[in-house]
Each structure stands twice: as structure tokens, then as C-alpha cells.
Amino acid sequence: MRAVWCVDCDWDTKNVLTGSADNSCRLWDCETGKQLALLNTNSAVRTCGFDFSGNIIMFSTDKQMGYQCYLNFFDLRDPQQIEDNQPYLSIPCNDAKITSAVWGPLGEFVNAGHENGEINQFSAKSGEILKKAKEHSRQINDIQTSVDLTMFISASKDNTAKLFDSTSLEHIKTFKTERPVNSAAISPIMDHVVMGGGQEAMEVTTTSTRIGKFEARFFHAAYEEEFGRVKGHFGPINCVAFHPDGKSYSSGGEDGYVRIHYFDPQYFDFELEA
Amino acid sequence: FNPNWSRQMTILQESRSAPGFCLLKGSFSFHCHQVFAPGGFCYVSVNWSKSLVSTNSILMLPLYFLVCLFFVCVFVFAELLLDILREKPQEADGIDSVVVVDNVPQVGPERLEKLKNVIHKIFSKFGKITTEFYPEADGMTKGYIFLEYAAPTQALEAVKNADGYKLDKQHTFRVNLFTDFDKYMTISDEWETPEKQPFKDFGNMRHWIEDPDCRDQYSVIYEAGERTAIFSNDAKEPITAEERARWTETYVRWSPKGTYLATFHQRGIALWGGEKFKQIQRFSHQGVSLIDFSPCERYVVTFSPLMDTKEDPQAIIIWDILTGQKKRGFHCESSAHWPIFKWSHDGKFFARMTQDTLSIYETPSMGLLDKKSLKISGIKDFSWSPGDNIIAFWVPEDKDIPARVTLMQLPSRQEIRVRNLFNVVDCKLHWQRNGDYLCVKVDRTPKGTQGVVTNFEIFRMREKQVPVDVVEMKDSIIAFAWEPNGSKFAVLHGESPRINASFYHVKNNGKIELIKMFDKQQANSIFWSPQGQFMVLAGLRSMNGALAFVDTSDCTMMNIAEHYMASDVEWDPTGRYVVTSVSWWSHKVDNAYWLWTFQGRLLQKNNKDRFCQLLWRPRPPTLLSTDQIKMIKKDLKKYSKIFEQKDRLSQSKASKELVDKRRAMMEEYRRYRETAQQIYQEQKSIRLELRGGVDTDELDSNVDDWEEETIEFFINEEIIPLGDL
Fold first, then answer.
1. Considering only CB atoms, which chain A residues are within 8 Å of B694?
2. Is A107 in Cβ contact with B690 (below 8 Å)?
3. Alpha-carbon distance A109 to B173, whole Å?
4. Residue A203 clears pLDDT 60, i.e. is over it
5. CA–CA dist A179, A238 (Å, integer)
6. What is the ipTM, given to two decimal places?
7. Does A178 contact B666 at a Cβ distance shorter than 8 Å?
8. Per-domain residue ranges of chain B
9. Domain B98-186 has CATH 3.40.50.1820
10. Which of A157, A178, A272 to mutate to test the interface with B (most CBs of B within 10 A)?
């Protein structure tokens, strides 16, 4: 009924999971489009995802209208949970709500980013916080994993994106910009990351909107140095993602456009002097 | 109050309050009240208290009468005594109202009457002269006189206003209070040497000039004012010299020669300097909001809108920097046109303009020059020449007297040039930095038209009688700027989007030549290099930061660039670098400062969280003579070889450093990835299990996903004729 905040498909693209601001999380059959399950919640569903096996789903709900933020887990192999709308595990988050979350490499835990910049590792079995990381100073806008799920990159409003190890939550790299970062992704084949962001939607005024001003920025993952920018969007970029083969990337922006860019051969040969 | 007098009165008092002698059966007593009011006046009241007197004896009646008479006599006598005592001339009485006037012409009896009239005319302005005394010797007046006023306040007025009065060329009155003589004569012969203040060694105040690579410093305020840092400017990247949190509460200012950094605080300002930026001096001025330095760095002027009382002017205070003393305070109605006090280039004078008045003060006395302000009816604006002690001011039209610009020499107050202007709407004064030229931008409405046209009246200060040339401009003027040490000026004129930049040369032959005009420029401000020749035309703020770098020796555009939303442009004091910046005070994102060469080549982009302000540290004037500078310019090739070598060395060092850094980072990253890969491999079995035996580790690792497809390609066509069969 309202905005869809998140979408994820399982590893062989059989099912699709969506979460929406209409206080529900739905499961769909990807081929037919048939709704397989409806899970109602008390507040908007902000983030959702299938684990590595595709059997367990997690989603987080917003802190809204008196309801707390919860991280819920359902086992799809147990139809009773779906029918009763009873997650086998529901973790409350008392302070800062979860803004983005991804599964760990083997489905044992979920790495969640919060509104205050914290990253917590929640066990998918017990619900306890296994590890914490407080590296960002402001809200985490997006978390995306590397293709092998061993690392993830967090994009934050504090104008940086940071690379973490998925299991140890060790902070590995930081990429600095002078604008809030809305989304970041790790290249599957090169040591590159791409970041997209821009001004706060509120701060964009008619005088400062310039054609092609908002750029996707490419950083070298090891050197933390920016080596390229792609112009084209004329509004802040909300989301970036690499194609699984690493030969192209896509970006979606506030301007209502999704842009797909294929890399030139020079991109793959490019090396910073070292 | 004469102590003897009171004692006498007490004796009288005592004698009178002795219990009255007893007459007959009754007793008389009376007592006398004396009330001594502060003015030395006293009033006496006498109370009689009579107890019952027996009236038995008729014989007593004459006796009573006698006794009463006696007492009355005593009473009257006492009163008279009091009066006399009261009027007894005392040393303190009347002295306070006496002034001594020296340097009075010595005249004989025939001119004495005339002299007395003149003196009377001058000095009766301050009050009522009750007595005058002209001591004589050998038939002539001695040359000094005594005047007594009705009240000490009048005597003070006379001293304040008549001291220094020039009667004629040879006679300037010196007026003093008579009591002052006494005061100064009774100064003790014993003199205690004042306690020696320990010498506060702040180190080498010019330490930054001795940087071996001649790096200039600049101050940066960022984090919305929370942090202030001083950097040394290096083409590669800024080197931090000092960084402090909450160093200032609002902003900072450098002194004109770069010696001090001034910071603002609620309670006043502080000056910092030396190698480590120690606090040199502090000036307490509650609520200070604006400051100004004298060009010689001897004085600092502070303004606060808070503290001002009628008796004690505190709105503007002038301080001596070295001693920390408050020299003088002034009233100030509004700080709209700061600095209110404009300094002469050598710091000898400072002046301010109020309604119809120009007040010029001299240092170090801080008193009005010639003891009075200049009455200039209608004065609208003034400014000092940056090269000489000359003030330029203008007054608008007054009935049939045209508007005029006047150049006045100080301290002689001689008007060296007056220029009449007609139909004037407004004038602005622009001095060339060395004082060689003055440009007066005159906006006029010519007779019979409605519109406003602008002329530039160029005064050639270095030529005899200051000739004036006029340049007429057709459009409205956006900006005007002189080349700092040359004879060119640049003008931005027109209306957006057709803004033109024109360059003029003031030639020696009396002509002012238009060298070049660039049209359709995106510019609203002109920034000349402090060394001249080069300049930046910038379109700041609403023009989105368009930049044009111009070489005015041949008027070519060296580079056209942009710093989006730039709000400020600052040249370094040597004219080698330009900084453009986006201040958080004007734009809330992309706050940074960019460093360019004077030719417009971008060297650095420095992002600073909520960057607010960058100010270059000024340099003191060079110690080299013009001949020495000529010699250096001659040998420039020799020096540039050495410098280029040095640059190359540091360049390769920098890239080597960068390369080393990258290598180290890559190694570290590789190590991490290897460990992660190892763990990944070890977990393969778990992954297979989770996905029901399907291997998804590689994109093409799942053989089941493979599809076989046969495609035919056209490779070649060969035509074989079968005709030979």
C-alpha cells in the first residue's frame, strides 16, 4: 500500500522478500509473482534479507508511533511461524533504530547499522549481540556485502564509507568525501568500491542544482584514494550496486533515474602508481 | 576647614554651656547649637532654658534686666565673632578659582587698558571674573597675570579651553590653576625608582619570516568556529603550525605587519604571537565586536556596543599594544562604517568624521590636533592617502556652491587641491596603494537627464599641482580597483549578463588609455595580486564561483576556472598563490579552500569540516633597498636554477613517499584478504550444505546452470567456379 523500503531475493532467485511502509513484509514467488506469505508488523519494515541458505528471513521494523525497533527472524521451513506471524526470534533495539542490515557469510548472525552510526552483530540463533563497532559518527544509510560475504561496506551520513570484516567487525578501510554517502558497493572482481551520495534532500535548492552535479565516486579499496567520478545524475544518488560480473554498475537517484554504466576496457587496466 | 576655628568655637561653646550661675533660687542655663555645614557656613541657634525665677523680690527686677542685657551682649558678640571668623581669609579659600596666565604680552601703561580689555574678552567666556591682577616691574607688565573667577569650576573651564590659545604669533597663552603650582612645587624631593617590571621575552616575533622555504602562513577557522589553525603554505599540502580549540569566539584578525594574531572573546581581545603563538597582551573590553590596528602596529582600537556612559566614553577604546594601557576612550553612535577612526599611513594621526565635523587626533598624546576639530559643513566621506599624510574628503552641493573634493595636507591643514563637481549624486574615494593616485568615482545626473552617469576623476598625486583627468563611463559600475603598486586600474561595469571588464593605464603623458575590454564576463569582484600585474576576476556567491586569471602586462586570460559557490578570494602577501574558498558562513555544504598558482593552476583542494575563514598572515615591509631588489631581479636566472633543483628533489621525495605509503597499504590489504580467503575456503563445506550441495562460489561454478548453445558464425565465403568440370 505504501513505499517499499527493501527487497531481496534468495540465492537461486526462487523467492522475493519485500518490506514496506505499510507495516508488512511479504514473500513472493519470483517467477509467477504470487504472494506466498504476508507478515504484518506494527511499524514500517526498513530492511530485510534472506540468509545464505535462503531458509531464514530477517527484517527490521522502524521505531514509530510508540513501537520499538525490532529485528525479527522467521524460519521458512516452519510454516507455523508464518501462519501465526510468530518469529522464532525477535530482538528489540532500545536506542537507535536499525537503518540497514545484512546477513553474515554463513547465516549465523546479522550485521546491523543503526541511526547513531553503531554497527551491531546480532546472533541469529540467540539474539545476543556478538560484536559491536562504533566507527561512524552519524547515521548509517546503507550496508552492502562483498560478493563472498566476507566483508561489508557501510555508507554513512558522516561523509565517509567504511570497510569492515563481516565476522570480526574489524574496521579495515575508510573512504572520505565531503558529502553524506547514501550508498556504497564493493566490486566483485577489482579492488574498487563505488559510493553515491549528495546533499540532504532538504538542502538542495534551485540555485545549487546543476546538471550532472551529483557524481558516483570510485575509490581504490586498498589505498583509500579516489580515482574516478561518474557524472550524470542531477539529484542525490540513493543507491549503487555492481553487477555480479563486475563489468558494470548501476545507480539510482533522487532525480527518478536509474543509470546503468558499462566500464571501458581502461577501467580494468587502470592502476595507481605503487 | 580650619581646625583652629572649630576649637575656638568649642571653647565658646564650652564656656556657654557651663551651668548658668545661680540667681536666687532659679538657675539659668542656655546652650548654643552650632551646626557647621560643609560649605563652611554655619548657623547658630541659641536655646534659652529658663527655669522658674522666683518673682518674689521686686528688687531683683533690675538685676534680671542687667543679666538679660549681659547675655544678649554676649550673644551678639559671639555672633559677630563667628561672622568675623567665618570671613577670615583662609589659604584654601578662593585659591581654587584663581588661574595664572603666562605668555601675556608685556606692555607699558599706555597699552595696559587695551590689553586688559582683550584678556577680559577672552577669559570672561568661561565665567565671571571677580578679580584680576597684572603684576608690573619697571613700568611694564611682567608677562603673567592672575585672574580670579567666581567659582572653581569656571577656573577649570578657563584652563581647559584657553590653555594653548594663540593670541598672536609670539604669544600663546599657558593657563594653569594657581593651586597646581603649589601642587607641583611640593613634590617630594625623594624619588623612588619605579619597580622594574620583569622583561617578558616572547621570543622572535618575526619567527615565521625566517622559514627556509619562505612559506607564508595563514589562519583557518573551521568546525563552525570551534577550531582555529595556523598553516604554513606549501604547494604540496599545508603544514600545520598551530591548532587550538576555541581559540577565538567569533573570528580572528592579523595585525597589519603580521606580528600579532587577535582573537575575540566576551571579555575583550587577546593578541598572540612569536614562534609558539603565546599570549602577548590582553585588552579588557566587555562585548567587543570590532577591532582595528594602527598601521605601525603600535595601537589597537576596539569597539563594543555594550559599554558606554555619558561621563566615561567606552564604546571605542584605543590601546597601546606594547604597554597594554588604555590610552583613550570615545563615544560612538553606530559602528556601521567600521573603522570609525581612520589612521594615517605612519600612525601619527587618526581621524573620524561626525556630523559636519572632521576630528583629527595625533599620537601619542591622543589629543585633537591643534586642540580643535575641523568644521566642514556637509562632509560626506574622507580617507587618508596610503602614502602621505594627506586627507581627501568631499562635500555635496549646497545651494549654489558646487560639490567639491578637497585634498588637505596634515598637520599644516593646507588645502593642496580642490576640485569642483557639478550635479553630483554620490562620490567614492579610491586611493592607489602607494598614494600615487586618487580616483574619485563620481555619480552624476547631468542637467536635463534622468539617468545617472559615472565619471572617474583621477588625481595624479605625484605631479605638481595635482592635475586631474576624467574618464567617462557609459554603464553602471560594479567594481573598481587600482593595481597595488602600479598605474593601472580595472573596472567591472555593465549589467548582468553583459558585464564587461576594462583595464586602463594612467600614462605619464597626461592620457588615460583603455588597454583592453573583455565582455560577457561572469564577475562581480576584482582581486589584484599585491605585487601587481596579475589579478583574478571572480563571480562570487550568486555568480557561482566563476574565476578568470588575467595577466595585465598584455591583458591576456591565463586561465578560466571555477570554484563552485566560492565566497572569498585571498591572495598571499607575495602574490604567488591565490586561495578561493567556500565559507560555511555563506554556504552550508562543500566547505573547503582551494589553492591556485597566480597563473590559475589548481594545486590543492582542502576540505575542512564547516570551514569558515582563511586569512593570510601579512608580511612586514621588505628590508631590502630598491637597489638590492634590482640586483636580485638581475640574477634571477641563477636563483631559479637552484630553486628548481630543490623543487624537483622535494617532488620526487613526495612521490616516493606516496608510492611507499601505497605499497605498505596494499601489502596490508593483501594480507588481510589472504587470511579471509583462507577462512572462506575452509567454510566451503558448510556453504555446500546450506545450499543443498549446489556450488555457488563462482559465477559459473554451478555446472547445472550451464546451458549449451550452438551458434554458427559466418566466417568466409569462397566461390569456386564449377565451370571447369
1. 12
2. yes
3. 99
4. no
5. 13
6. 0.87
7. no
8. 98-186
9. no
10. A178
